[in-house]
Structures are given as C-alpha cells and as structure tokens.
Amino acid sequence: MTAAAIFPALPLFLPELLLAGGALALLLIGAFAGPRSTAFVNGMTLLLLIVAGALVAMQPEGRTIAFNGAFVVDGFGRFMKVLALIGAAGALMLSFDDFRQRRLSAFEYPVLVLLSVTGMMVMISAGDLIALYIGLELQSLAIYVICAFDRDSTRSTEAGLKYFVLGALSSGMLLYGASLIYGFTGTVSFAGIAAAVTGAPHSGVIFGLAFLAAGLAFKMSAVPFHMWTPDVYEGAPTPVTAFLASAPKVAAVAITVRVLVGAFPGITGQWQQIIVFVSFASMALGAFAAIGQHNIKRLMAYSSIGHMGFALVGLAAGTEQGVYGVLLYMAIYVAMTLGVFACIVSMRRNGQPVEAISDLAGLSKQHPAMAYLFALLMFSLAGIPPLAGFFAKFYVFAAAIQAKLTLLAVFGILTSVVGAFYYLRIVKVMFFDEPKEALDPMPGAAKLVLALSSIVTVGYFVAPALLNVVAVAAAKTLF
C-alpha cells in the first residue's frame, strides 16, 4: 500500500491512533514517574476515552472504506465504538476507589485498558479477516493480563491463566476457520467473500464459517464456548469483571454481526442455523445455571451468557430490523451491567470486599438508595416493563417473529421468566431478609455510574426516540 493511499485515510483512523498513542505516552510517563503517576494516568485515560468517543461521533456520515478495504467507517461501527468506549470508561471509573482499597493501584492498569479498547475499535471496524484478527488479539492480550492483575490472589492468577489458555484455543479455531474461508474464496476481504460465496457454497466454506463462528462465540461467552466465564468473572478483581461484562462483549457482538451480515449475506440460511442453536443454548444455560449460584459475580457471569443469547435472537433474524434490535439490546445491556457492577464493587464490609448474595441482606434498611436502584436494575435485567430491559427484549423478539423464528422468540420469553427468579431473589434478600452488619458507604465514582445507569434504565421509557433513531440509522448502513 502506497503512502498516497495511507495518509488520506488517517483521519478516519484518528480515534484509534489517539488511544494507541495515548497508551504509549502514558506508559512512558508511568515508567519514569513511578507509582506516584497512577492518579494522573487514571485521569488522562478517562479523558482519552471521552475524547475518542467524541471523535468517533464526529466522523462523517455514510460508509467509508480505507486501507484497501481493511478498515470500514460506518454508522454501525460508530454506534458500537461509542458503546465500547462508554463501557470501558464506566468500568475504569469503578476501579479507582476499589483498586486503592485493595492496594492494587498501578499505572499499568489504565494503559492496558487503553490498549484493549484500541483493539476493540479496530475489530469493530474490520473490513477483512486480517484486521479482525489483529484487533481481536490486541484486545485479548491486554485482557489476559488485567484478569490476573491481583498477583497476590490465587483466584485472580487462575482467572488470567484460564482465560489465556482457552483464549489461545479459540484464536486457533478462528484462524483455522479464516484460513479455510480464504482458501476456498481466494480473498480475506468481507466484500470479496460476499461476492464469492453465493448459491450453494463449497463445504469448505461452511466448515470455515463454523470455526470462525466458534472463535467469535468464545469472545461473546456464548454456549458452548462459555466455560471460562464463571471462573474468570469470579476470580478477576471486580472492576475487571465489570470491564469484561461490558466493552469486550460489545466488540465481539459487533464483529460477529459485521462478519455474518457483511461477508456471508448469500448463505444466510447456513449461518442462521448456527446462531439459532447458540442463542437457544445460551438463553437456556443463562436461565437455569444461575439459579443455584450464591456468589453474585458468578451469578452475573451466567446472566451475561443468557443476555448474549437474547442479543443473538436479533442476529438470527438476519434482517435490518434484527440488527436494529441487537444494537438497541447492547446499548441497554451495557447501561444495566455498569449499574449492577457499581453496586457489586460497593459491597464492602469494614474495607473488605464481600461477594455472597446473602451479604446484601437488609440492604434496604442500611443503604436504601443503593437498594432501590439495585432492585430497579434487577427488574430491568429480568425484562419487566416499563424498564429499558423489557424494550431490549421486545425488539429482538419482534424481529425474530417477523423472520418466522417464532419458536426461538417463545423460548426466549420462557427463559426470561425463569431468569426472573434469580434476579428477584436478590431483591427479596435486600428487602426481606434479616439485616447483617452494614456495608460500607458507596464510593463517589460508583454512585455516579449507578445514577447514570438508573437514568438510562428508567429514562428510555420516557424518551426512547433519540436512541432508536441512531440505532435505526446504524443498522441501515450494514444493508
């Protein structure tokens, strides 16, 4: 690629360049200034994420292709990038007080978050299989490290190691699938693959698609590639778990939608079968496996598996309305998840973190504001109207019914009813169980994240128009 082709495309790549350059600069500052630079690096990282979000939002309308088709800037990518940046910023804010109390504060953590988010943004805008893999690995390598960030904790080290080993396996599967697709189509470009794969595809392409979908399902923690999720969620420091549950999920869902809709529109019937199975299995496991959990982080792990199943209901439809449902679902999911983890991060007693659901007993009497907002988010996760979680599920189920996937939509509704049990059990513990020793007050950053999350959860019913308009326009750019 010539310089004449590269330089005109650099403004489109500006948010990613900002994050990558900022990460390197902050790493140098931290290396020279040492531990005393941690607060400055934290603040600058948060500022970089906000500025990158503003740059993404200001990118030109329409669809622009750069770097010989390797990088795509469109409404879909902009929507998902902003969501990923919001998820990362919210999780980073939750780490400030928590890491200080755990004595984990170090300038390396925000730098790793920046590098991971850079990978996510490259992945979301990937226009070919090579860019997809580069973004995926940049995201994953940083996450492996932050999962094991608490070096004095056996659970944290185990979480990082498990995620690394299983992540390497999934990357191998994805690469094998990509090589098969390249071998049978002669191109790595999504547009080129779409032109080559029409009618009755070669069985090699189907095998490649299956392996590619397996690698992406691992990143979404969708069944049957979910096995790492409960242990990693429980073992990693809570702010890291909040990060895992939000930003990387957005990036994984985004690239899955882009690959399947953009590279394989001619064989929708084939990949639709894979997505329907994964959606069925994820909703079922998320609903039933969480019932017996006593650790709230493990419960949220199974909850996230279930929610990925619900989001994939929209993708299974394979239509513009289905993609619109996925976009809306992920936006609402990120808001609810950050609010829930703001409460979980605040579960401390005498300065020590507690994670058992029973530790929330009597919270309504000790910290009523936190209890009522936590209950609000639980109702929303369960899909109870008129909260945002209800509308998220409504749109993906409506898209499935319109695409004649009625059985999938009915199954999703039934698993939502089952899942409501464990969400409402948390509400019962907070409001009706005998109080335990009071939890410590919520940190200021957690209060802010919880307040913003609650506003979105309630406010969507009052003023949904803006988010809906943006999501509709974003979905159109893929078709």
UniProtKB/TrEMBL annotation:
Alphabetic keyword roster: Cell membrane, Membrane, NAD, Quinone, Translocase, Transmembrane, Transmembrane helix, Transport, Ubiquinone
BP terms from Gene Ontology: ATP synthesis coupled electron transport
InterPro entries: NADH-Q_OxRdtase_suN/2, ND/Mrp_TM
Keyword Transport: yes
Subcellular location: Cell membrane; Endomembrane system; Membrane
Keyword Transferase: no
Origin superkingdom: Bacteria
Transmembrane segments: 12-32, 39-58, 78-94, 106-124, 190-218, 250-268, 274-292, 299-317, 323-348, 369-388, 394-424, 445-475
Catalytic activity of the protein: a quinone + NADH + 5 H(+)(in) = a quinol + NAD(+) + 4 H(+)(out)
Group of enzyme by EC: translocase
Main location: membrane
GO molecular function ontology, one term from the record: quinone binding
Positions of the NADH:quinone oxidoreductase/Mrp antiporter transmembrane domain: 126-418
GO cellular component: endomembrane system; plasma membrane
Membrane topology: Multi-pass membrane protein
Enzyme Commission number(s) of this protein: 7.1.1.-
Quaternary state and interactors: NDH-1 is composed of 14 different subunits. Subunits NuoA, H, J, K, L, M, N constitute the membrane sector of the complex.
Family under the similarity heading: Belongs to the complex I subunit 2 family.
Function recorded in the entry: NDH-1 shuttles electrons from NADH, via FMN and iron-sulfur (Fe-S) centers, to quinones in the respiratory chain. The immediate electron acceptor for the enzyme in this species is believed to be ubiquinone. Couples the redox reaction to proton translocation (for every two electrons transferred, four hydrogen ions are translocated across the cytoplasmic membrane), and thus conserves the redox energy in a proton gradient.
Record protein name field: NADH-quinone oxidoreductase subunit N
Organism: Camelimonas lactis
Organism placement in taxonomy: Bacteria, Pseudomonadati, Pseudomonadota, Alphaproteobacteria, Hyphomicrobiales
This protein's encoding gene: nuoN
